[in-house]
Amino acid sequence: MKFGINFFPAVAPHEKSGAQFYDEALALCERADALGYSSVKIVEHYFNPYGGYSPDPVTFLAAVSQRTRRIRLITGAVIPAFNHPIKLAGKLAMLDNLSHGRLDVGFARAFLPIEFDAFQVSMDESRARFEEGIAACLRLWTEENVVWQGRFHQFGPVTLLPRVYQQPHPPVWIAAVSTPQSFEWAGWQGYHLMIVPYLSKHEDMQRLLQLYRDAWRAAGHPPGAEQVQMSFHAYICEDGEQARREAREYMDDYLAKFIQAAAGWNTRVSEQYKGYEKTVEQLRAITYERVLADTKAFIGDPDEVAAQVRLIRDYYGEVEPSMQITFGNMPHERALRTLELFAQHVMPRFQEQAVSTPPGRA
Amino acid sequence: MKFGINFFPAVAPHEKSGAQFYDEALALCERADALGYSSVKIVEHYFNPYGGYSPDPVTFLAAVSQRTRRIRLITGAVIPAFNHPIKLAGKLAMLDNLSHGRLDVGFARAFLPIEFDAFQVSMDESRARFEEGIAACLRLWTEENVVWQGRFHQFGPVTLLPRVYQQPHPPVWIAAVSTPQSFEWAGWQGYHLMIVPYLSKHEDMQRLLQLYRDAWRAAGHPPGAEQVQMSFHAYICEDGEQARREAREYMDDYLAKFIQAAAGWNTRVSEQYKGYEKTVEQLRAITYERVLADTKAFIGDPDEVAAQVRLIRDYYGEVEPSMQITFGNMPHERALRTLELFAQHVMPRFQEQAVSTPPGRA
């Protein structure tokens, strides 16, 4: 089983400067690379403390590429609606080469009204821009003398440089939250899937994931070759009570920033985002107690967290947890502790060889 | 006197992969950082071997930021016409933080028809987009709750994250080639200047530079605080004859790729690019012998190159040569030799000239 880490910055300038956030994040990446984590992921968001420290995930991952040797770099995700496909395909191709083929490209539609407004993009064009952007990137990566006649962009013949490192192109992932069409479409296309389970009931997410896997098979892609990354906040101490006590502050902080960023949904309805007008309401209903009770995060001592990981695997099958080990305005040492404890005490229990004989921990 | 290095990739996929080019460039940056070079710069270009390996200079410089400790990182240049200002200001702010304030931002108008066509931007809007893009970035860097009502973009109120590291903002540089208006405007605004002398006669470039310095003073900016970077191809061997013999191939290669990229000018006229319709003709007139005879490049043994640097200083006053130590399809070892020999034998002769230039208003 693979385990990745996932940066969703949720800090404001008066809490942590950009320089401090990146310094700490890069140190965590370096250590994660050494400890055997599988991937490092970062979002694309703007303006708000919720994600705003990463308006360009490729810039951050280019820095990570020079601090790590083997870990995969994943955009989680880039937003075609806010990026010209030539620009997007070009910088991703640079990153694929800078990292010697360690790039995974996650694409998303975005969902915050303030971001669409700033880029003067209609939310009702969200899916069309997303699909066109991905298709254009794929052609720019795999073909020469590309002529593109899309709804939003027309260009060519042009040959993108540099050519991508991975052949035929870097793996493509789709970020999906709750729209069934997104799950089905991703499976049909043969793309991998990045999901965020803490916003949904496990039953609902299981159903959505099944839609994805069914579509994958129905389209004739090799069964079992699909990959799924699932985001979880993670906070571990040697003492489980301490972990639960300490993590509350950062989870509440993270959710409060999410609610602030999503406020635009209070006055917005979009056909392409059915139900999103209830986002703030849904977020307000998320309590820390329910996050713990429903295993929507990995919080506790190593034994408890290992049990939580097993539960998730039982629910969803073989997925790659993508763990937010820093969330809200968390001190670096606490994120580093989670990283170390998980690698030392939890990860070994999920290595192929260890499955038959789980090492008891005291 | 300060000396920087300057990457203008001019290689095709069948010559060097992107991965090889970046590996070599990053190794040169790491060494340049240790040897006391002042800055590392890279272009923004697309599609052609001429510059095409750098469609996003910020991606490359983000990688450089983690391989170096003190050298300044300069976009040479980014193109507002091809980048949304929110995107551009955001990734540059990330780079400023990733590098702990080592970023210099060079902006340019771009000049290749194929690039404007691909982004569906009219060359006749070139100056307006350039000026609007710079102004929008400056406001996003220095103000909160920015409302932007421009000709090409409208947004706000938004507050860019992360906030820039350097206060009030990273130094701003303007790339200018031959349009007098560009030189005057840069001086008037109080921006630093990046120029490419090998396309012009020295007398013409001296005159243009004077326009810049005059405008700088007339606008009330502190005399002498303006900074000028000047691009030179550089190739050094212990034996001057060998240097001249070997460099010819790479200079011819570079110019041939430039001519290929500029071919779009054969069928284009733009009021905002007066005279550019003769670009290919002018490039064809550049011979290697004239480059040498007119000191349009630093080529020779260390003594000869030191004399060339002195001559340039006599022509233009205190400028920072920004040296292309790799051009065309040059083997890495040859670029590295130039870097080492220049640092060892040429740079020390100009150390007594070193002035600590205060960070510009820019």
Molecular structure report:
2 copies of one chain form a homodimer. Chain A is an alpha/beta fold. Chain A has an 8-stranded parallel beta barrel, surrounded by 7 helices. The C terminus of chain A is likely disordered. In chain A, α1 runs parallel beside α12 and α3 crosses α5. In chain A, β3, α3 and β4 form a beta-alpha-beta unit. Chain A has a single domain, classed as Alpha-Beta Barrel (TIM Barrel), CATH 3.20.20.30. At the A-B interface, α1, α2, α3, α4 and β6 of A face α1, α2, α3, α4 and β6 of B.
Separation of termini of chain A? 23 Å
CATH architecture name of chain A: Alpha-Beta Barrel
Please report the two chains with the greatest interface, counting residues with C-beta closer than 8 angstroms to the partner's C-beta.
A-B, 55 and 55 residues
Output mean pLDDT of chain A.
94
Give the % helix of chain A: 40-55%
* Main beta-sheet annotation of chain A: 8 strands, parallel, barrel
Radius of gyration of chain A: 20 Å
Multimeric organization: homodimer
Order of helices and strands of chain A: EHEHEHEHHEEEHEHEHHHEHEH
Tally of DSSP helical segments of chain A: 12
Total strands of chain A: the figure is: 11
The CATH homologous superfamily of chain A is named: Luciferase-like domain
Question: Which regions of chain A contain 5 or more consecutive residues with pLDDT less than 50?
Answer: 354-362
CATH class of chain A: Alpha Beta
CATH-derived topology of chain A: TIM Barrel
**Helix/strand class of chain A:** alpha/beta
Total domain count of chain A: 1
- Into which percentage range does the β-strand content of chain A fall? 15-25%
Mass-distribution shape of chain A: globular
Side by side, the strands of the main sheet of chain A go 1-2-3-4-7-8-9-11
